[in-house]
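Fold sample X.
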Amino acid sequence: MNEEKLIMDRFGNENPFRVPKDYFNEFPQRIMKRIERQRRRRRIIRWSIAAMMTGCILGATFVFNNFKQQNLPLEADNSQYIEDALDYSMINNMEIATYLTEAE
């Protein structure tokens, strides 16, 4: 009760809160501008995400194809490597055939 009396003595019956002139007349236009800004921001975000995803897909495709092309010569060199290793170990084809037939 004491606080109410203190407030009434200081402010009286008048309302201490005020709104700017034409606040309620301009309110719908301000809200519509804010909605349009949000729509524009969402549109930009969506296009940015789509561009980033496209870039990631293209980048991954490029890296994958590059990696695949780098491994092709290695696979072709495997047979040459095996032949060189056999020549170095001095194992002839007859010994290999004998080993394989005995293993069965």
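Fold sample Y, listed below.
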Amino acid sequence: MKPSDVVKRTLQYYWRTTRSLTLGAQACVLTEDNKVLLIKHTYRPGWHFPGGGVEKNETIRGALERELREEANVELTADPELFGIYSNFAYFPGDHIALFTVRHWHQPSAPSPSHEIAAHAFFPITDLPDQINPPTLARINEITTGAKPSDSW
């Protein structure tokens, strides 16, 4: 483990144990031909939506835009749609995720892998990867089939 990873994990632990509530913003980025953008991180297994934590003095939309840019080089071309707000208490008590659907966007170029993002890819909704994170799969199903959204991530 790199020293920067140790620092990051230490800070994440500190934030989780000293804050009563944390908030993340994630995006289900969809293409016109029914593909979804998924991200593979370097520090956790599986494929996930792009997104991350809302920082102090940052709006949810600001966090969403920043994370999309940093993780996938995606820029919004219209307002994202708030799909739902989920508790993520299995991750830690007080954590919540705001999930947005993003249908209007632009990707100037595909991003290169980084210290945080191992890969990004667009998958047909009917052919998702085997290693998809189960909550991510559940959210895709809610968005694409009209199933009632869960309260929990």
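Sample Y note: The two ends are 28 Å apart (CA to CA).
Also: The chain has one domain: 22-145.
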